[in-house]
Amino acid sequence: MTAPSVALQRRALVGVLLTVVMWGANVVLLKALLGGTNAETINVGRFVIAGSVLVTLSVRAHGWPRWDARTWLAVAAVGFLGNTLFQAFFLTAIRANPAGVGGLVTGVVPVLVLPLGLLLGQKVSGRQAAGVAVAFAGLLGLLAVTLQPGATVSLGGLGWVLAAAGAWASYTLFNRPLTAQLGALPFVAFSLLLGCLPYLLWAVPHLHDLNQLAPLTVLGIVVSALGANVLAYLAWANGANILGAARTAVWNTLAPAVALLLSAAVLHERLAGAVWVAAGVILLGAAWANWPEQKPKVGETALSPPL
């Protein structure tokens, strides 16, 4: 198999970098949208739009899945972790925290993937363990900030960040064998379709009337769905396919940094210096843990985000 051309690799890298910017900006956008409607309306709109587009793309590319009942059940169960639980916790974390802090969810994920992977019998390298230890130290620093009087970050708000990261870490670990077996696009599309159903059933009574939403709020929901959940996914999957999952994953640690910077520039959030330091340590550890190995070891836990 011939290696991708330099031009193809550059285009893939540009797509990955744009994805990182979209994911970081999406946190700030969601924080702004929460000022105009509730989390249920936002998530349902995103699920319907992104799910419809991804399922359509998957069926056009691969046809309707011919999976057995056990596979459908596994896809639905893992999708429940990555959609109903994660999205509910993620929007709550963004609402309960400054956007810059809520965006740290992806930076915290490696701290939780490691112990979960060990429980499942997966191996980790010394570099990964060291990176996670650094990120955990930053997390403890952020926890210490919450104990200070008048802190902009509360213990409860940090708890929602950890809950969202825990749901995403679980989804990350359990989706890998299914992605390898079923293909990335079919798995993501149908895990979203099935995984969001419990959330939809719970959220419908809480939806706001679309006719009463500001046009910019509706536009923001559409942009979030198509940008962060469709275009970003396709660009990220293309980058992982051409550049490799390990080389791609390390860039994901920039998404929380983008969220921090945009939250200060756009939302005028003013976070204490200690929060910036703790966030920097978390992201440094996450980048170290995700840094690609020269020769990955068989059975070693990968800390890349799900594709």
UniProtKB/TrEMBL annotation:
Coiled coil: none annotated. GO terms for cellular component: membrane. It is found in: Membrane. It is a multi-pass membrane protein. This is EamA domain-containing protein. The lineage of its organism: Bacteria, Thermotogati, Deinococcota, Deinococci, Deinococcales. Keywords: Membrane, Transmembrane, Transmembrane helix. The chain crosses the membrane at residues 12-30, 42-59, 71-94, 100-120, 129-147, 153-171, 183-204, 216-237, 249-267, 273-291. The keyword Plastid does not apply. Its main location: membrane.
